[in-house]
Amino acid sequence: MVHYKLSYFDARGLAEPIRLLLHYVDDEFEDIRYTRESWPEVKENLESTVFPVLEVEGQKVERGYHILRYLAHKHSLAGKDTWEEAQVDSIADYNREVYLELAPYIYIKAGYKQGIVEEAKNDVFLPGIKRHLPTYVKILKESGSSFLVKSGVTWVDFVLAEFLFTMKNMEPEVMKEYPELEAYMKRVYSLPRIKEYVEKRPTREV
Fold this sequence. Notes:
4-stranded mixed sheet, single chain, globular, 8 helices, Glutaredoxin, alpha+beta, Glutathione S-transferase Yfyf (Class Pi), Chain A, domain 2
C-alpha cells in the first residue's frame, strides 16, 4: 500500500481539498499539521517551506493544485476526457483568482493581517461575492449533473466546496442568497467517507 504524508499548517486552507479527496478515495494518509506556536522551530529543520507538501514513498509533490491533479489522475477524478480535464482546470484557476481577490478581507477577518474588518467586507468581500458566486451557479446548471462537470465528481468539487464553506464561515448570510450553492456544498460534504470526516474534523475558520 502507498504511504502518504500530507504536511500543512493547522488549518483547512490549501490542504483541505486534498484531505477531502484522500478520504473520498479511502486512501490512508498521515495528516501532519504545524501550529503557529511550533512553526518557527519546525521551519528551521525543513528543506522547503512551500506548503502543502505530499510525500509519496520518499518523493514529494508541492503546492495544492499540483497535489490534487496528481491524486485525481490516480483515482479517475480529473474528468472523463481531455475536454472535461480542461473544464476542471479552468474552474480551478477561476476559483483561485476569486480567492485572491477576496483574500484581503479573509486574512483580516481570520486575524492573519491587520485591517478594518467592516471596511474590507464592504469594499472587497461583498462586491466580489456578488460578482462571482452567480458564475458558479451558472457552471453548476450547465454541467447537467449535481457537480461541476457532466461526468460527476472531480477534484475541483472539493476545492469549490471548501471555498464556499470558508465564505459561509466569514459571513453566514451570503450563502442564503445562493441556495443552489448551499445545496451543492452539502452534497459534496455528504459524499461517502467525506461526511464522516467533516463531522469530526477540527473546527477552523479557514
